[in-house]
Design goal:
The chain is of the alpha+beta class. It is built from eleven helices and seven strands. The longest helix is centred in the last third of the chain and has 31 residues.
């Protein structure tokens, strides 16, 4: 099925801003199969992205719109696919409360009531956050169901590496995951990404170019244990200075660029088995994220996206 690319001009973005300011008519902007996206949806998603990334509103208006549009398209694709597997998107309260803690921690808020009051002042409905949590939780469950058998972890190798000394290296890493469109060259794509990094910084480049779910957070992955990385990525990291980024590394479904933000050494836990399980979990999560990116890009090729002017 042919994909119709969306090219919505800055004038439409201005109309969306006007909608917020004076109650402009809510319009359908595009459809992802039968899932509609309206001007109000765009406004709400912008507020959500500002919530999870404090630097989001510093971007230019057109960039804000493009990132928001892509975020909503990914979400609609997930909704369409999840509807084939789940009759309801409801999840147990204990799960959404656990995931809600991630929002609260990011904002340095302790209670759910504090969080509700905070987002109310940002014109974000609490139900919107719960809905997003449910979608992400079920999507992750679906990816686990589909790909858990394909996860490869060598715990004996992890044990051998940990047994070499009492400390292990960790790196604070950000990522840009991308693939190539038909006829696009890797050198040209990398040059575009490098140019954006040079002029606007790695975080903004990640928001613009990355197809990973980490894009909305500027590509930030947090502290990653060196022993949880595969050999190819380890070698590239060792060749990269702190503050610099790697060349594109081939991964399943595309390429990844990693920025090495910081480095530290942490003491290995006395309970070696527990440390091994922690590293194994990191490895599993990385592989599942790659499978998720591959799957959503496969689905995107089968989705019909129509723009309404």
């Amino acid at each position: 099925m042919k994909i119709i690319k969306i090219t919505i001009s800055i004038s439409i973005f201005s109309l969306i801003l006007l909608a917020k300011a004076i109650g402009y008519e809510n319009k359908i902007l595009f459809k992802v199969n039968n899932e509609i996206v309206t001007s109000i949806d765009i406004l709400n998603e912008i507020e959500h992205l500002k919530l999870i990334n404090k630097n989001f509103e510093k971007l230019e208006q057109q960039q804000i719109f493009e990132i928001t549009k892509n975020s909503l398209i990914r979400e609609k694709i997930k909704i369409i696919e999840l509807s084939n597997y789940f009759d309801s998107f409801e999840i147990d309260k204990e799960y959404y409360e656990l995931l809600l803690d991630n929002y609260k921690k990011k904002l340095n808020l302790k209670t759910t009531d504090e969080f509700k009051n905070y987002i109310k002042n940002k014109d974000i409905k609490f139900e919107t956050i719960i809905n997003k949590i449910q979608i992400e939780f079920l999507w992750n469950q679906l990816i686990i169901q589909k790909y858990s058998k394909d996860i490869k972890i060598d715990k004996s190798k992890i044990r051998k590496n940990l047994s070499k000394n009492n400390f292990q290296e960790e790196f604070l890493i950000s990522e840009i995951v991308f693939n190539l469109n038909d006829g696009e060259k890797l050198t040209d794509k990398f040059d575009s990404i490098k140019s954006k990094i040079k002029t606007k910084g790695f975080e903004e480049a990640a928001m613009m170019y990355s197809i990973s779910t980490s894009a909305n957070n500027g590509g930030k992955l947090g502290w990653i244990k060196f022993n949880s990385l595969n050999l190819k990525i380890k070698n590239e990291i060792l060749k990269t200075n702190i503050g610099d980024f790697t060349k594109p590394i081939v991964i399943p479904g595309g390429f990844i660029i990693l920025k090495i933000e910081e480095e530290r050494k942490t003491k290995i836990l006395e309970n070696l088995d527990k440390e091994i399980e922690n590293i194994a979990k990191e490895i599993a999560n990385k592989q599942l994220n790659q499978f998720s990116n591959i799957y959503i890009n496969k689905l995107k090729k089968e989705i019909n996206i129509n723009e309404f002017r």
